[in-house]
Amino acid sequence: MIAHRLRLAAVRRATRSNVFFSQNIPRMVLASAMSTSQARLISTQQLSQEEGQQVLVNQRLNRPTWSGASAWTRITGCALSGAAYVYFTTYLASPLLGLHVESAALASGFAALPFVIKGAINGIKHLVYDLGIGLAKAQIKQGEIALWVSSFIGGGYLAFGL
């Protein structure tokens, strides 16, 4: 709307003085050729209350479940953040308590893992998803179970040296 008013003001100024009229003609033509409005190509239809309710019910059926990948990503993010706070607090207090919670101990525990576990498992789920494989709900649930089991086993190995 502002652009339209500016263009209109420019045309009025150009027509008032004939001295600059010939110089402003190309600018006015260029300005009038530019579209400053947006057009949305949508259509609406009138629905009854029951039809509208049915549309909402169908949309809800297509939503991911609470136990979907997005919810578990948030939950694991919160758990990892909480674990990081606990670890760093323990790391700061370990000299006072006589504990050996140091980077060298964690690095040696991770270094003892086989190469396949260190390199290959990291991110496999997302690489498989990028290929478009395993996107059905049942397959996602199986993948989440495998991820949880491998996370607990790996975490137990790092924490307790099982």
Task: Name the features.
mainly alpha, 2 domains, 72% helix, single chain, elongated, 162 residues, 0% strand
Task: Tell me about this structure.
GO terms for molecular function: electron transfer activity; metal ion binding. It comes from Hypocrea virens (strain Gv29-8 / FGSC 10586) (Gliocladium virens). This is Succinate dehydrogenase cytochrome b subunit. It is found in: Membrane. With 162 residues, the protein is mostly helical. The chain folds into two domains: 2-33; 69-160, no CATH class. The chain contains eight helices and no strands. It has helices spanning 2-16, 21-33, 49-61, 69-97, 103-111, 115-120, 124-130, 137-160. Helix 1 (2-16) packs antiparallel against helix 2. It starts with a helix and ends with a helix. The mean pLDDT is 76.
Instruction: Give the amount of beta strand, in percent.
Output: under 5%
Name the poorly predicted regions. Answer: none
As for the number of domains, it is 2
Please give the radius of gyration in angstroms: 32 Å
Q: What is the distance, rounded to the nearest whole angstrom, between the alpha carbons of the first and last residues?
A: 70 Å
What does the largest sheet look like? none
Quickly count the helices. 8
The secondary-structure element order is HHHHHHHH
Q: How confident is the prediction overall: mean pLDDT?
A: 76
